[in-house]
Amino acid sequence: MIITKENIDDLNAVLNIQIEKNDYEGKVESVLKDYRKKANIKGFRPGMVPIGLIRKMYGKAVKIEEINKTISENIHKYLYDEKIEILGDPLPKTDEIDNIDFDAQDEFKFSFDLGLAPVFELPLSKKNKVDQYEIVIDDKMKNDYISNYTRRYGDFINAEVSEEKDILKGRLESLDEKNEVRAEGTLVEDTSLAIDIIKDEEIKKSFTGKKIDETIDFNIRKAYPDNNEIAGLLRIDKDQVEKIQDNFRFTIKEISRFQPAEIGPDLFNKIYGEDVVKTEDDFNKKIEEEIRASLSRESNYKLMHDVKDLAIDKTEMKFPEEFLKKWLLKVTDKATPEQIDKDFDSFRKDLKWQLIKNKVAKDNNIKITEEELQKEAENITRFQFSQYGLYYATDEQISNYAKETLKREDDAKRIADKILDNKVIEILKEIVKIEVKSVTAEEFNKLFE
Questions:
Q1: Alpha-carbon distances, residue 154 vs 3, 151, 367, 389 (angstroms)
Q2: Nearest-5° angle of CA 95, CA 99, CA 100?
Q3: Three-state SS for 411?
Q4: Which of 186, 211, 260, 377 is the most buried if burial means most Cβ atoms within 10 Å?
């Protein structure tokens, strides 16, 4: 096999391949012999089908497949040995393939378009400044954090008199023109409604200040303009709602009120596990630690994002855009040229970052160890558990869950990419100038608008 590269310009090249019969013939014969051993054809004993018949039935398909495999393997080897960095994949010239006669030919010539990775330098230095935002913790933040916990672990209690935030359970009956219950009208026992989602303010007020067994007559369409809400309340299909025009009477059978959990040992144990936090003072300190950790994550995320954007904006890089668009059209399912053009700026930015990341990793000999993968998987697991309130999961449980995550190839790759991103950005942070700036949470949030 002979492979030669013809440079079109700095970003485009053509790979020419000449393949002869002896490059693939042995593999084709080996596959056909294996087919013969397994073939189950009427009139022949297993393994005794004439090789000529096998070749007639499968020869062309096997030949094409083995030629493709041989070409693919050798292209990969050639690019690796010659240290040629490409973008996307080699694209075969289809007009050449269309003219090939695999039945009659034994020698073949193929050409592949290559998109070459650009050569570039990273221009960052201490002249480039990036702000790191230190978010100030205030009382509102602490109170909101505590409120989230008390609501998360709160419960519903029975109340005697209804208030605007209560949920009522009871009987719902349709009324006639005289405001009397229809004998054969709609009747729903044990339905529930939340007072605060009633849209009409007058109707909403009529549901408050009521006791068990009291009734409220109301226009259901004014209360709930959304057909889905009416369907749920009356337990009917949505297509039946159009027929509903009556007023309704609701008879209260139960008043439920959400009560946030009280701040005390019971709440502390539910959040953190038995006797981890014992006093309200310790609880407040724990809250501050969690807020600080959360704000630190947000601040670091913003810093990483800004450093990454700076590297992308400052680094000049040209791409073989025509080649890349052809490649994207081929590998993207159901894509159109118009969609490729529309999304190309975003793709180019991602590709630019990938090349910067690879260069920094290569120049600094960055490696990712199994221990780092496990640790990062554990950190992600611990964060996910905390999102579900599982603060007292053991280290062993977290470790085992992380190991299972890493067994999934896509998850392992995602975690490895995250580690590489972090390592590269840490190096870039050392190159540029970082200035710390204190901001309020409101000011910080506006940075994302």
A1: 71, 5, 47, 13
A2: 120
A3: helix
A4: 377
The ranges of the chain with pLDDT < 70 are 96, 98, 389-392
Q: Other CB atoms closer than 10 Å to residue 61's CB: what's the count?
A: 11
**Listed residue (23, 72, 124, 7) closest to 428, CA to CA:** 124
Q: What is the pLDDT of residue 390?
A: 66
Q: Give me the pLDDT at residue 392, please.
A: 66
Residue 40 has a pLDDT of 82
Residue of 130, 126, 124 whose CA lies nearest to 434: 130
Which are the contacts of 136, defined by CB distance < 8 A and separation ≥ 6? 438, 439, 440, 441
Which pLDDT score, from 0 to 100, does residue 184 have?
85
Q: Are the C-beta atoms of 173 and 185 separated by less than 8 Å?
A: yes
- Angle at CA of residue 148, ends 146 and 154, nearest 5°: 100
- In angstroms, the CA 48 to CA 41 distance is 10
Identity of residue 347:
F
3-state secondary structure 343-410: HHHHHHHHHHHHHHHHHHHHHCCCCCCHHHHHHHHHHHHHHHHHHCCCCCCCHHHHHHHHHHHHHCHH
Cα–Cα dist 264/149, whole Å: 12
pLDDT for the residue numbered 16: 94
Cα gap 275→255, rounded to integer Å: 35
d(CA 29, CA 20): 15
Q: How many residues does the chain have?
A: 449
- Extract the tokens encoding 375: 């640790």
* Residue 195 contacts residue 210 (beta carbons within 8 Å): no
Residue indicated by tokens 């605007």 = 164
Give the torsion sign (CA, 439, 445, 448, 449): negative
The answer to whether 166 touches 256, Cβ cutoff 8 Å, is: yes
Q: What does each C-alpha distance from 68 to 92, 254, 326, 387 come to in angstroms?
A: 11, 73, 21, 49
CA distances (Å), origin 380, targets 315, 376, 399: 32, 6, 11
pLDDT in tens, 251-287: 999 999 999 999 999 999 988 888 899 999 999 999 9
Q: What is the pLDDT of residue 96?
A: 67
